[in-house]
């Protein structure tokens, strides 16, 4: 019988799902998810992603059952699974969304494309988010993004409307170690996967929490509620970017008709959030246009800057939350328990790693990819390079962890929550406990170097030396000359307008919220 295979990847929903509706219009469908061991063996995968995926697939399976087509699970590499299915139950069409993932998914998609050509199978892909495949010029990108976001969202298939085909075999969900996951830590306080929890988070943000978005997303104290917390659901595709954009716009219109302070505050928060939605896709487009930025410097003039001076002791201390800088170590502790921290604290972690600790961004980025429940390769690797200073087109961003603590945790509530050993340290010494006189250490029962770590390096001198090296390299004529080509390929064409709108704010302000979703 003729049927179409709907290949679900990072689009785990039935709403606004063009491949599913197209397949239904052509007749019977086989709704397939392929659990690929090679992808889970990658160094950016973690148990928290695996468990979140399982929860998301359970939710998707329920959605599909309502539509009349059960979700079929196959365990194996995608080209081999498709070949096996085609041999046992031939099909002529494969449909899916485009995916901008890591290097492994890119290589996998190339292999699937070659297989489809050999077998004469038509593989049709649809874009999702606002990312444009084979984009020739950034000049057109913003208009294409707007057009995609304003196109009507597609409805879910009606109940019991799908004609279903089943896999000719049955695979069980494997244990994590079977697919190559050595990591055994699943954060106890992480968000749960699936469209249902994602929709609850969306409505709660649009109807209430968004009022705290402006002014609340920078501090790790207020950010867990002020940020939308939608990023893991967008990364998995349980929620579509277009439906979130349009739901936000509908709420903005409703609020505009309400004349009270709370409605105005909520509307202002949602306006700021909408700007971040644009930046979300802007960064993913960079990886789509240049997949190599996942593993090599975007500006090749920075090759060799940090690679040959790797300090494993510094890296191990950072991963363990034992750097000696309380705000850094508290953020690592929060990540361990929740799988999330706000963007400013993410930027601070990368800055500390890249400057005073002088660590190359790639290993640090792999570690953080495993920590972030909402790991989105396109955003993650662009941000890693931007914060490490290797894009060649962005201002140097150096975050002082002591100043960040003073600005965003002035009473020490965040640091004391996540670092119990510091709860007895007096306020005057909390963010720089290594400066405590010995008699103060004795009175509060905290011995620096034993109960808590001393800083790995002198923050001031190490940061100064790192910035000097970076600026010396940036000043070289050959490095400066290569900047124009990077701006042409990856630079935002909205820059002039944004600079006018934000002239009283720091130039990097629009970027600093792009992960606070």
- Secondary-structure element order, as H and E? EHEHHEHEHEHHHHHHHHHHHHHHHHHHHH
Largest sheet: 5 strands, parallel
Please state the overall shape, judged from the principal axes of the Cα atoms. globular
Helix vs. strand class:
mainly alpha
Give the number of DSSP strands: 5
Strand content: 5-15%
**Helicity level, as a percent range?**
40-55%
pLDDT averaged residue by residue: 94
Order of neighbouring strands in the sheet with most strands:
3-2-1-4-5
Q: Helical stretch count?
A: 25
Stretches with pLDDT under 50, minimum 5 residues? 495-514
Straight-line N-to-C gap: 44 Å
Radius of gyration: 24 Å
Keywords summarizing the entry:
globular, 517 residues, 5-stranded parallel sheet
Can you offer a commentary on this structure?
This protein has helices at 18-25, 37-40, 47-67, 78-88, 103-119, 141-150, 195-207, 213-216, 223-226, 231-236, 241-256, 261-289, 312-320, 326-338, 343-354, 361-371, 377-388, 401-408, 413-418, 438-444, 459-474, 477-481, 483-490, 495-501, 509-512; strands at residues 3-8, 28-35, 71-75, 93-97, 122-126. The protein has 517 residues and is mainly alpha-helical. Strands 3-2-1-4-5 form a 5-stranded parallel beta sheet, sandwiched between helices. Helix 1 (18-25) links the parallel strand 1 (3-8) and strand 2. Helix 11 (241-256) runs antiparallel to helix 12 (261-289) and helix 16 (361-371) crosses helix 17. The longest helix is centred in the middle third of the chain and has 29 residues, at 261-289. The protein starts with a strand and ends in a 5-residue tail after the last helix.
